[in-house]
Amino acid sequence: MSIQKMSRLLMCAAVFLAVPFSASAQSTQYGNAGPWSLFRATDNGQVVECYATMPGNNGASMIFTHQASSTAFGLKTRRTNDEGIGEQVLIWFDNNRAEGNYVQMGYSGEWLAYTTSNSEPNGLLDLFANANTISFALSLPGGGVETSTFSLKGSNAMTKQTYDCFQNPTSMPSSVAAMSSPRGQGAGCPAAGSVRSGNSGQTATLHIANSSFRPLKIFWIDQNGQRQFYQDLAHGQDYQQPTYLTHKWIAVDQNGDCVDGVLEASQPGYNMMEIFGDG
Q1: Model's pTM, two decimal places?
Q2: Which of 193, 174, 197, 188 is nearest to 248 (CA)?
Q3: pLDDT tens across 113-127, in order?
Q4: pLDDT digits over 214-241, tens only?
């Protein structure tokens, strides 16, 4: 590694924390900015985090999250923490790899995230808000490199809304239904707390395909019976969701209704789930 690249790594090093903030928090949709969907997470009535997610290609996704002491952005791909992905990741903007920065990233669940303290300015956050694209080069076991590139369309408006969502806790969210709260239950959805994920250690994969002619949001129902948002899925899109046997999932449309009931892997390994609804 060159001295220049090493100095960038040291300047960009940051303390990693889990994103999204808390499994006990309740997330409600706050708004949209281009392809980004924004959410506000509250715990006992207090805003603990605001975050935004955006689907990419081949089942990949991006996240941007803001909390009291830190801000983070990251990605989710078909790669997992178990594969031994290197924590030093090269990031560059607008196809300018020569000006890339090595940063320390870490996994929180399926998200690989770069996190920085809010106590001082961070140039990467400015670039994230104003660039057209961002690329990540992941170091694979055995010496390989896998590059993922995402459009940053709408990221400037999204970051401003995300900051405002957290810093102005009395601001009203969008008129979108509170899909993650018990009050957001719609047709076809299990009653709050009536369905919970089990504690199986057997891994599986749900290949979820949206053929319902409507945009969907994929939620995991955790062991406490609470919804945890994972993925936006437009009609015609599909992605592979790592999971466990006995874990429960639902697909929620723009009206807050659950499409095709509760989703669950029926066997270890690969499981295909095509969501049709009523068309």
Answers
A1: 0.58
A2: 197
A3: 999 999 988 999 999
A4: 999 898 888 888 888 778 888 999 988 8
Q: HEC profile for the chain?
A: CCHHHHHHHHHHCCCCCCCCCCCCCEEEEEEEECCEEEEEEEECCEEEEEEEEEECCCCCEEEEEECCCEEEEEEECCCCHHHCCCCEEEEEECCCHHHCEEEECEEECCEEEEEEECCCCCHHHHHHHHCCEEEEEEECCCCCEEEEEEECCCHHHHHHHHHHHHHCCCCCCCCCCCCCCHHHCCCCCCCCCCCCCCCCCCEEEEEEEECCCCCEEEEEECCCCCEEEEEEECCCCEEEEEEECCCEEEEECCCCCEEEEEECCCCCEEEEEEECCCC
For residues 84 and 76, give the distance between their C-alpha atoms in angstroms, rounded to a whole number. Answer: 15
pLDDT, one tens digit per residue, over 91-113 is 999 999 999 999 999 888 788 89
Domains, the chain, ordered by start: 3-167 (2.60.40.1880), 182-275 (2.60.40.780)
CA–CA dist 61, 210 (Å, integer): 16
Residue 177 tokens read as: 């239904």
